[in-house]
Amino acid sequence: GQQVMQIPQYQHVQEGEDFTTYCNSSTTLSNIQWYKQRPGGHPVFLIQLVKSGEVKKQKRLTFQFGEAKKNSSLHITATQTTDVGTYFCAGPSRGGGYQKVTFGTGTKLQVIP
Amino acid sequence: NAGVTQTPKFRVLKTGQSMTLLCAQDMNHEYMYWYRQDPGMGLRLIHYSVGEGTTAKGEVPDGYNVSRLKKQNFLLGLESAAPSQTSVYFCASNLRDPNTEAFFGQGTRLTVV
Fold it and tell me: H helices of chain A, where?
């Protein structure tokens, strides 16, 4: 079945440093979504990328979808303590006759003030 | 607008006991999912439903059963709880299919002793 891996699994950064997490799928994705989960919270949708090579920005966050639509990245510029949490990528996959959402393994970000 | 509501939020079970987790959404969403989250394992799909009366297995279905008798509710059952089922359980839903934003419940923290 489809596998979605993220690296790194954990990342500690000093406040103000940049941060990047990478998402790699074993199969081509029709689209990819990114979610953020704050400590003790639930995943919350951030953005969806659909087109090959697409780049989207949300303030200090930059999301990219690879040309082959098998990988994606999330880059945070000048991290703040509010960026702390786990970031997941997710993509549709098919199994048992139906489509479903497969989540990546997640990258846990810790920001040191 | 409540969104996705999970009950209970916390539960402690003894090995061999049974219980049902309830997920309710008021957004008229077709797709609903049950995930479990364990440290370092990301979100793993247990079972999902593509509409009222239809369910399918995810990647870790053993030891769990589900039912979707009403469109707004998705129940996750543990017939005979085991310590390996200690986890945080999240319910999620999509409006139409996995290519749309997923909304998550607040989670249920289950401990099996």
Answer: none
Segments of chain B scoring below 70 in pLDDT: 1
B99 contact residues in A (CB cutoff 8 A): 30-31, 92, 99
Whether the CB of A21 is below 8 Å from some CB of chain B: the reply is no
Q: What is the average per-residue pLDDT within A80-101?
A: 87
The answer, yes or no, to whether residue A106 has pLDDT greater than 90, is yes
Angstroms from B71 CA to nearest CA on chain A: 17
Distance CA B75, CA B66 (A): 5
Does the distance separating the beta carbons of B42 and A105 come in below 8 Å? yes
Phi and psi angles of residue A55, each rounded to the nearest 5 degrees, phi first: -130, 130
Share of chain A above pLDDT 70, in %: 96
